[in-house]
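ok so I'm stuck.
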Amino acid sequence: MNRMKRALSLAAALVLMLGCACAFAAGDGRIRYEGEGFATPEDALACYMEGLKNLDFEQMMSAFAWETQMEHYDLRVFLERIGAYQATMRPRMPSINDFMFSANVNVLRFYQADLIYRSIEAYILGDDDPAKAATGSVTFERNSDDVGAFLEKFENGRLEKLTQMTNIRFLSPDEITDNKFSVGPNPESFIRQTACYGADEAVNLVGVADVGDETLYCYPTICRYGDRWYLVSVSSFTSMIIGVSNLNQAFVCGPGSLADLIR
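replied:
not stuck anymore, here's the structure
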């Protein structure tokens, strides 16, 4: 009887594993990284923020459109708006076949992941961030414990503090831009900036949460494809208006106002 129970348990586990594997495979056998999307832009942003709270990087990444974004992405529109082609752009080559489509999906994932990674680094290190040094780097003396002392800075408890995140809420762009988002040429500029995503609808939304005695802000671009919403970028027209630096594109968290944090 025990042997039969073990066999049934093993079979059930195998079915579960196969089911999970199939959930990430497209009908043509290609891996799909994105999830099923969300009913509202708030749901998409909440998934991203809760992933940060849970220290679950994959949950954060699951809030994004990867394949769907690249299926609709209009590189021509993007390049015409920028007026240049640069090696720092991602993606920057057309998806002319399956190979380039997959390459662009993975480059897009890397780029957004790196922006999140960079903001996490800035949050943990604070004033010790190398980007704030005059040289843009930290140097280590030979035959010293400089490296060990520097690496210990990553164990300062800042990362774990994110698990204290509470009271997730959402603001409109106008609420943090003194209504600049909706005046003058900005509404038309927002439409031009987001046209390259080829989405049915694009919005900016500001996520705010309490982290102990600090406040966290994030300001992504969120798009609707069909009836499903996804993040498409951690940065946005809103973050450009308020002048968010490259260090804080994915989020910023600290004491004081948003203006103080991005100054």
